[in-house]
Amino acid sequence: MAETRSTCPYCGVGCGVVIAHEAGAITGVRGDPDHPANFGRLCTKGSTLHLTATPVLLQTARLHRPMARTQRGAPLAPIGWDTALDRVADRLAATITDHGPDAVGFYLSGQLLTEDYHVFNKLAKGLIGSNNVDTNSRLCMSSAVSGYKSSLGADAPPACYDDLALARTVFITGSNMAWAHPVLFRRLEDARAARPDMKLVVVDPRRTETAAVADLHLAIQPGTDVMLHHAMLHIMLAEGLHDAAWIAAHTNGFEALRERVRDLTPARAARICGVPETDIVQAARWFAGQSTDGGRFPTLSLYCQGLNQSSSGTDKNTTLINLHLTTGQIGQPGAGPLSLTGQPNAMGGREVGGLATLLSGHRDLGNPEHRAEVARLWGVTDVPARPGKAAVQMFEAAADGEIRALWIACTNPAQSLPDQAMVRRALERCEFVVLQEAYRHTATTPYADLVLPASSWGEKDGSVTNSERRISRVRPAIDAPGLARHDWLIARDVAQRLEARLPSRRTPESAGRSMFDFRTPESVWLEHREMTRGRDLDITGLDWAALDRAPAQWPCPQGQTTGTARLYTDGRFVTGDGRARFSAPAPRGPAESCDDDFPLALTSGRLRDQWHGMSRTGTLGRLLAHTPEPALQMHRRDLERRGLTGGDLVRVRTRRGELVLPVQASDELAEAQVHLAMHWGSEVLGGAGSAGVNTLTQPICCPSSGQPELKHSAAQVEAVDLP
Ligand code: SF4
Questions:
Q1: Same domain, 485 and 618
Q2: Domain boundary among 12, 27, 60
Q3: Would the CB of 17 count as within 6 Å of ligand 1?
Q4: Which of 186, 267, 494, 536 has the most other CB atoms within 10 Å of its CB?
Q5: Average pLDDT over residues 546-559
Q6: Helix, strand or coil for residue 697?
């Protein structure tokens, strides 16, 4: 038996795993005791990884060979790799020649490795000359990106996991960390056990497992976070809990914020947020952390989709960061705003600029100097200034006929994007859909003209970055099944074919050489590393061998031998003048208000033991046992009002569509709220063209981040009359 160290492919905690394998088969998995994210621990999902990669499942659940249809609606039939790659290159080249580079879109995934992302991004922005590259990470963390950039000047979470043990107050908002980031939550439990004076504040409309153990739970009305943050700041100012000297030395824009919160009293916020005034006051005092001797106890905030998945997601992020800046709670041990990434490599995708609005190395698409730098490093004449389409926009453009070819890799938009009626129209109208997938069937497969088999966890080789900026190696223990190939290799091979089919965009100095002369994941990573030189995420002090020895946190510039645990320790930020920026947005409610016709606020979220569309976790009875079936959760009094009892079938309807499913009484929710897990799709849930909860959700996005408002839709629920 042999053992291979790698990284868990599920959430952004980024736990190290040790894979046991024998004779080409994975036989077990355990937590890596030396990995600084988890020190040997794994959650239920991580500890059952080996069971999702048994020889039987590799044989039955995985896609083994390229397949294509002769026409839409015809069955998929096997084709050879060369034929498949030529066909993709031919169709993309023809689309670009006939309709321009922006007629092509790439929709990627936070589960791809950094090396995969880099090659795709270079293929789209460098070779083709289109910024239409986006990712399902848009659905989970783009508001955190725009929040950091707006407030601190760079998309860089300033704190780290070790701060959990050093914080006096931990402020969790919009995150059911106990289920979505379980190993990190265990670290928080350890820290609380060691420090009985620690205060845990949880802000969440639902009384989740995380909220249930808090010292203070603020069960706010969905979408009222900005009002809460402003009211907390109002209290800090009224009680002199702010750090005036720090604000004066390190920030801009405080007076506008002071003016904004002047009338946003806790009493007013209590009415709007639906929580007691005294709780808002208590939360503000604990957050400020002022001690009786004039010192300050550190406060760490942790946040996730509850802030991000909102039409005002950026405002929710920046107003939370305001609280840190107001009290100087940043750049210190135990203090700072630490957004949690949902996926294992959402952070790596951000580093390589794998979003329509970003460029490699945390550069900005809107900055001509940044575009010129990237073009020079890649040896192309230019990177186009035209903005690319963010996830929802990309599919809207496909539905409108503007985007004619889509290449989808490692994600399932026919289940995971909001407003599925629109998404499915887009996939039907699109003239050419390529799906690069590890699994034999997802909700997106029926729309694909061509499917390309990709390698998966236990087989892949490269790197990922977790929520605390820590880069870890992903290593292969076994070969991919059948003819499946690594994602970056597939992208490289199509890119090299496209180089022969499209007019060259190479500079005279670099003409004649392929832009994609990559032989190994390390060769891709080295090019990515060079893109970070001199940037806030500089990793030029690392090499592949160093990463092989131990995971490292960026930045790690040349001359530095270890990474960096905390950012902004000197109070200087990555803005032009080094000062952080307060923002002062007016509080806004959700885009779609509840009314007499649609009186219920629908939220969606993760379960403890499932992952995304369940391609992997849905294969295990042990994981399904936690929650075997989907059910709409609803408050008991709302059930009674409708004459319903738990287990009854109900029709839940929004302005986009409807689902039929069982209802379940829930003690977690307030009245007038309903909740549905995000994992089940059309295979289980009823309703015309059902795609699970995203049949119901809306495509309204935060104007700054492009992240859709998945956490709030106005809904109605009625009993289904059985014949
Ligand atoms: Fe994997 Fe996240 Fe669980 Fe760690 S906490 S084992 S990364 S799913």
A1: no
A2: 60
A3: no
A4: 494
A5: 97
A6: coil
Please tell me the pTM assigned to this model. Answer: 0.96
**CA proximity to 157, closest of 384, 362, 449:** 362
**Which one of 553, 573, 608 terminates a domain?**
553
DSSP class of 389: P
Return d(Cα 228, Cα 534) in angstroms, integer: 38
Q: Is 173 a member of any domain? A: yes
Check which CATH number belongs to the domain holding 432 and give it.
3.40.50.740
How many angstroms separate the CA atoms of 723 and 718, rounded?
Answer: 16
| Per-residue model confidence as pLDDT tens digits over 282-339 | 999 999 999 988 899 999 999 999 999 999 999 999 999 999 999 999 999 999 999 9
CA gap 286, 267 in Å, rounded: 18
- 594 close to ligand 1 (CB < 6 Angstrom): no
| Residue 47 alpha carbon, nearest atom of ligand 1 | 6
Tokens 């295990």 sit on residue: 620
* Atom 4, ligand 1: residue with shortest CA distance: 15
Q: At what angle do helices 114-121 and 487-501 cross, to 10 degrees?
A: 10
Regarding the beta carbon of 46 and ligand 1, being less than 6 Å apart is answered yes
Question: pLDDT tens-digit profile of 397-455?
Answer: 999 999 999 999 999 999 999 999 999 999 999 999 999 999 999 999 999 999 999 99
- Are 406 and 446 in the same domain? yes
Question: What spacing in Å lies between the alpha carbon of 602 and ligand 1's midpoint?
Answer: 27
Residue whose tokens read 């569309």: 613
Pocket test for ligand 1, best of 6, 7, 8 (most atoms within 8 A of CB): 8
Distance CA 353, CA 388 (A): 12
CA of 612 to the centre of ligand 1 (A): 14
Q: Which two tokens stand for residue 697?
A: 């959700």
C-alpha separations of 403 from 31, 64, 107, 406 in Å: 44, 29, 12, 7
Would you state the pLDDT for residue 94?
98
Question: Do the domain assignments include residue 296?
Answer: yes
Span from the CA of 464 to the centroid of ligand 1 (angstroms): 13
Q: How far is the CA of 179 from the centre of ligand 1 (A)?
A: 10
Find the angle CA(151)-CA(155)-CA(156) to the nearest 5 degrees. Answer: 100
> Considering the domain boundaries, does residue 570 fall inside one?
no
Residue 389: alpha-carbon gap to chain centroid:
17
Express each pLDDT in 255-276 by its tens digit.
999 999 999 999 999 999 999 9
338 near 158, Cβ under 8 Å? yes
Residue type, 57: L
Q: For the chain, what is the mean pLDDT?
A: 96
Give burial (CB, 10 Å; 0-12/13-18/19+) of 169. Answer: buried
Structure tokens at 492: 């490289």
Q: Are residues 418 and 331 in the same domain?
A: no
Residues in the chain: 723
From atom 5 of ligand 1, which residue's Cα is the shortest distance away? 183
Q: From residue 702, how far is each of 392, 396, 475 by CA, in Å?
A: 11, 16, 37
DSSP 142-208: HHHHHHHHHHHSSS-----GGGGGT-SEEEEES--HHHHSHHHHHHHHHHHHH-TT-EEEEE-SS--
Write down the pLDDT at residue 722: 67
Please indicate whether residue 623, judged by its CB atom, sits closer than 6 Å to ligand 1. Answer: no
Cβ contact 175:453 at 8 Å: no
182 lines ligand 1 (CB under 6 A): yes
Section 164-178 average pLDDT: 98
For the chain, the domain total comes to 4
Centroid of ligand 1 to alpha carbon of 181 (angstroms): 6
Say if residues 199 and 213 touch (Cβ distance below 8 Å): no
- Coil, helix or strand at residue 452: strand
Placement of tokens 């050879």 in the chain:
80
Show the domain range for 23.
2-60
Verify that 379 and 313 share a domain, yes or no.
Answer: no
Q: Per the domain annotation, does 584 fall within a domain?
A: no
pLDDT (tens digit per residue) in 622-647: 999 999 889 999 999 999 999 999 99
